[in-house]
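User: Let's play a game. I give you a shape written as tokens, and you guess the letters that built it. Ready? Here's round one.
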């Protein structure tokens, strides 16, 4: 009877949840529930395990590009599972159409992303510890009024156990801002396996700052009529069509906003640009040398999950009124499926002057531009990150990460600026009385699986340089191009050069009308060089911050710059391993990994909530079109007739 009921449930869920024929469509809540049911019925599933993340198990690229096979691609869900009782991690792949577990893999000696159960356990372990209670009361506080902020281990300890860190704050009166009043000097290291506090740090080194959060919470929309701009966005079977662009956006549980199958329709023919674009990993290292701070760094994608930390986007505040908003479903660690509304926004916006030329005072030709924004926001602790892919009418793609939220601050005895740059202000900057904000960096690595026209591409480093005076530079004004193809993976780790205006071009095997390969060029915008020393364990676990660009041969399971499981890792299992076999890259299926960065030296203007700053990179067509593609959308207008004089 049990098996009959299970079969009926599977059929019902399959009929309601797997109707889409788009192989990249966002997994529905029904599909996720079905996958959980199938997985838990499998004898290999640890019965006390919790779910870490569930997302689409991406189909093989060769099947997506083969029209004969595309219709029969299986609909699969990938799930990472953690069994806390045995400290083991597993990966399940579930076919929700055939209703089977198609693959199970045991992943030894790793710690997956943190889940709600970890946060709850850490909070419980700390609050029942007598040393916590004594330390809080000694500071004149009620332990129940203190918030416990849980971090991944940061700088890993020599342990195979599940290790977390805890730091402490006094929330503001409203309970909405839990970051402006740090209890500096108090921190704990926790072992979730033994359910113990393995290390206490308790030094009363600074007073607890007074509340400084004075920004409006929550947002209230102003009364008045809604103004909705006209839109030409069409969404059919999860595929977005806007102007000449076609693509499928999803919110991946780990990476957040991901674009699939990006194409540009040129004279009726869809032309490939990218198979997949996503935020692969990010690192936030802090520059304060205090023992209470030196461990603080965050792999915000691989340790916490961008997609699972999605937050709702609100019209009139986060996005304009004309935005198309989409929901996404995620699975909590107990198997409960939660649908988060309005976590994906798609909207048009004005892009200024697209092109203009004044032939004379009476003859001015110009075109106003529009661009499409695909946007997602995630809150990772104190920071809010807004990831946007901006598609322009001329075929350009801009990747933009907005950084806002509340800075991670420390309590201090300092009440005014110390111009000597000594003491506590050597590594941090005063933003309010008794509040210092340590300097830190943000590194974002985007995995760009560009397929320009097809999968046989070449990555070329392009420099502009000036030769010494001579036959090639007789007037000392020459600017020449130096082009070098990246031949293999070990040659594929490259650095930005401002002195040479360096860019990287990804070319196809298709020639344009001028006989050159059609291509797209990666143009650096926001660059940060790491201040972490080369021997730092954090840097050794995040080698993607050492270069701005890496090129590797495509492999479907190489998705994350710092490896599948950076939490508590002892070295970098990502890009260095992907490059180790030194595969050839010329006219191969190549993946480009681009790292952009921000160095944040705090200002009082960043407090108590930060104005949004941006990190960006541009990907622009280079010989992909035979002329300015904007002109195809312009109808020529005859010049105005001159008025005759009588």
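Assistant: Ready! My guess for every position:
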């Amino acid at each position: 009877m049990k098996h009959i009921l299970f079969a009926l449930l599977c059929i019902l869920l399959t009929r309601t949840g797997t109707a889409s024929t788009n192989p990249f469509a966002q997994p529905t809540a029904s599909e996720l529930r079905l996958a959980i049911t199938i997985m838990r019925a499998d004898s290999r599933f640890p019965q006390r395990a919790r779910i870490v993340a569930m997302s689409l198990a991406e189909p093989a690229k060769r099947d997506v590009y083969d029209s004969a096979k595309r219709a029969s691609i299986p609909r699969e869900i990938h799930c990472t599972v953690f069994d806390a009782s045995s400290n083991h991690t597993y990966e399940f792949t579930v076919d929700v159409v055939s209703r089977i577990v198609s693959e199970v893999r045991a992943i030894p000696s790793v710690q997956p992303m943190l889940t709600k159960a970890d946060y709850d356990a850490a909070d419980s372990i700390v609050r029942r510890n007598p040393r916590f209670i004594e330390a809080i009361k000694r500071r004149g506080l009620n332990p129940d009024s203190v918030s416990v902020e849980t971090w991944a281990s940061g700088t890993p300890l020599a342990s195979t156990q599940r290790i977390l860190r805890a730091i402490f704050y006094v929330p503001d009166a409203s309970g909405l801002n839990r970051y402006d009043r740090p209890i500096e000097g108090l921190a704990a290291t926790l072992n979730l396996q033994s359910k113990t506090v393995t290390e206490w740090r308790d030094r009363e080194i600074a007073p607890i700052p007074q509340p400084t959060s004075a920004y409006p919470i929550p947002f209230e929309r102003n009364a008045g009529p809604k103004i909705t701009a006209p839109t030409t966005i069409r969404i059919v079977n999860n595929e977005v069509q806007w102007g000449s662009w076609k693509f499928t956006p999803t919110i991946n549980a780990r990476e957040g906003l991901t674009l699939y199958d990006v194409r540009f329709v040129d004279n009726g023919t869809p032309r490939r640009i990218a198979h997949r674009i996503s935020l692969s990993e990010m690192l936030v290292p802090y520059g304060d040398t205090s023992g209470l701070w030196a461990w603080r760094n965050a792999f915000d994608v691989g340790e916490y999950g961008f997609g699972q930390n999605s937050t709702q986007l609100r019209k009139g505040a986060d996005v304009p009124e004309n935005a198309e908003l989409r929901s996404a479903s995620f699975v909590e660690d107990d198997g409960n499926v939660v649908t988060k509304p309005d976590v994906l926004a798609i909207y048009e916006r004005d892009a200024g002057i697209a092109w203009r030329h004044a032939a004379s005072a009476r003859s001015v030709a110009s075109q106003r531009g529009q661009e499409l924004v695909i946007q997602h926001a995630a809150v990772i602790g104190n920071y809010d990150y807004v990831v946007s892919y901006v598609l322009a009418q001329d075929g350009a793609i801009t990747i933009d990460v907005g950084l806002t939220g509340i800075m991670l601050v420390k309590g201090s005895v300092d009440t005014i600026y110390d111009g000597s740059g000594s003491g506590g202000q050597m590594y941090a900057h005063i933003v309010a009385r008794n509040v210092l904000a340590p300097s830190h960096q943000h590194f974002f690595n985007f995995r760009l699986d560009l397929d320009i026209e097809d999968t046989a591409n070449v990555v070329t480093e392009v420099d502009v340089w000036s030769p010494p005076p001579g036959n090639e530079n007789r007037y000392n004004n020459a600017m020449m191009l130096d082009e070098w193809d990246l031949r293999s993976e070990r040659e594929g780790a490259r650095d930005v050069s401002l002195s040479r205006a360096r860019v990287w071009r990804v070319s196809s095997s298709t020639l344009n009308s001028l006989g050159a390969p059609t291509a797209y060029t990666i143009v650096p915008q926001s660059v940060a060089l790491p201040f972490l020393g080369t021997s730092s364990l954090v840097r050794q676990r995040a080698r993607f911050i050492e270069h701005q660009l890496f090129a590797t041969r495509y492999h479907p399971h190489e998705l994350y710059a710092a490896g599948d499981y950076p939490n508590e890792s002892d070295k970098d299992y990502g890009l260095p391993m992907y490059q180790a076999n030194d595969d050839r890259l010329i006219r191969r299926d190549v993946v480009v990994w681009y790292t952009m960065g921000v160095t944040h030296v705090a200002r009082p203007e960043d407090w108590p909530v930060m104005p949004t700053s941006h990190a960006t990179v541009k990907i622009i067509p280079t010989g992909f079109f035979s002329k300015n593609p904007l002109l195809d959308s312009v109808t020529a207008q005859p010049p105005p007739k001159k008025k005759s004089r009588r």
